[in-house]
Structure formats: C-alpha cells, structure tokens
Amino acid sequence: MRMDLKDMLFFVAVYETKGFSSAAQILGTVQSNVSARILALEDAMGGDPLFERRWRTVVPTAKGVKFYAYAKDVLAKLDDGARTFRASRAA
After folding, report:
1. For the whole prediction, is pTM greater than 0.70?
2. Is domain 5-90 annotated with CATH 1.10.150.530?
C-alpha cells in the first residue's frame, strides 16, 4: 500500500489539533473518515501507530513526531511548487 497525500493532510490536522474530532471539523468531514485515513496511513507505514489515543485527545508517538516533520516538509514543497507554476503561467 502506498502513502496518500490526503492522508498526510489528515495526519497534520490531527497532530496540530490533538484530536480526531477537532481535525474533522477543520477538514470539513466526519471523525470516522479521519480515523480511517489515519489507520490507512499507519498501515502504509508498516502498521506502527502514529498517535497514542487517550481520552478526548491524542499524543503523537515518536514515529508520529518524526513523520510530522516529514509531512510538513512535503506539503510545504507542494505549496511552493504550486505557487511557482501559477506565477510562471501569469508571466
């Protein structure tokens, strides 16, 4: 199974909001969809958990902390690329 970009976006939202429900709100989806995306991402990355689920919050595991830095970098590069190509089309 390969990693999906949308899964990365969902991961970052959960990481930054510290919860599946709050991530769902900002992503405009339901909590079960966020949970399914995170499970799919964990599966794609070898099955290790990215979050420790606690009552009403989540805490990133060591693997989750490392992946967050990677995901933020990938997403930033995609944004930079989109801006660059939009600017070159306008010129």
Report:
1. yes
2. no
